[in-house]
């Protein structure tokens, strides 16, 4: 079966699809959506393609979260952060693709000025770049990387641009494949257990 949100809907509210088990059902979100509320897909089970339109300007906290407490899902497809996104919130993409079916690189939009805590923690994304690793592109407006923002991800080598001034605790902890980490020259604060 399938669940199709009608074209013309602009907002998916807080917890709209949370705690649902629609495994093997297709979820279709229209391109008219410009905002997704907190925990909209929290602890859900779906088998559907993840499609985030470039019209989306707001994604709330913990939108896809919940696997640690027994939730899981089967989103698949190419990961893409909407280019018009103005604000990223805590844990928005945490644990997304935990079954390993999401692919792509991480390109953070130019409009974003801070990478919040737990944003991508434990996100499992298939490496499709030539270097067989996830590429990370951070815009020059970002000065701060929040706590545990990238913890548990599959980076092999990472060079952070010099405009970043603050890296909070645990930002890259449990990145078990990360063997090379270049820290910014302008770094002013480096939190505890940033990398282990």
Task: Please tell me about this protein's structure.
With 196 residues, the chain is an all-beta fold. 0% of the residues lie in helices and 24% in strands. The chain has no helices and 19 strands. It has strands spanning 2-4, 11-12, 21-22, 26-28, 35-36, 45-49, 58-59, 74-78, 87-88, 102-103, 106-107, 114-115, 125-126, 136-137, 144-145, 157-159, 166-167, 180-182, 189-190. The strands form six sheets. The protein has a five-stranded parallel sheet with strand order 3-6-8-10-13, with no helix packed on it.
Structural class comes to mainly beta
Order of helices and strands: EEEEEEEEEEEEEEEEEEE
Sheet-strand content, in percent, reads 15-25%
Helical amount: under 10%
> Total number of β-strand segments?
19
The major beta sheet can be summarized as: 5 strands, parallel
Net shape: globular
Short description:
This protein has strands spanning 2-4, 11-12, 21-22, 26-28, 35-36, 45-49, 58-59, 74-78, 87-88, 102-103, 106-107, 114-115, 125-126, 136-137, 144-145, 157-159, 166-167, 180-182, 189-190. By secondary structure, it is an all-beta fold.
Summary keywords:
196 residues, mainly beta, five-stranded parallel β-sheet, four-stranded parallel β-sheet, 19 strands, 0% helix, 24% strand
């Amino acid at each position: 079966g399938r669940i199709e949100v009608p074209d013309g809907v602009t907002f998916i509210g807080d917890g709209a699809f949370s705690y649902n088990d629609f495994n093997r059902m297709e979820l279709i979100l229209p391109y008219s959506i410009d905002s997704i509320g907190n925990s909209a897909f929290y602890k859900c089970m779906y088998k559907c393609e993840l499609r985030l339109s470039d019209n989306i300007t707001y994604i709330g906290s913990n939108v896809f979260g919940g696997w640690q407490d027994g939730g899981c899902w089967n989103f698949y497809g190419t990961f893409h952060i909407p280019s018009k996104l103005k604000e990223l919130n805590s844990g928005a993409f945490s644990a997304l693709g935990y079954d390993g079916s999401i692919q792509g690189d991480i390109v953070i939009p130019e409009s974003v000025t801070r990478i919040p805590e737990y944003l991508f923690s434990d996100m499992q994304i298939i490496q499709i770049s030539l270097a067989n690793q996830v590429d990370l592109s951070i815009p020059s407006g970002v000065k701060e990387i929040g706590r545990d923002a990238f913890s548990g991800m599959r980076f092999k080598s990472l060079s952070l641009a010099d405009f970043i001034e603050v890296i909070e605790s645990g930002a890259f902890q449990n990145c078990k494949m990360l063997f090379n980490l270049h820290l910014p020259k302008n770094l002013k604060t480096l939190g505890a257990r940033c990398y282990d």
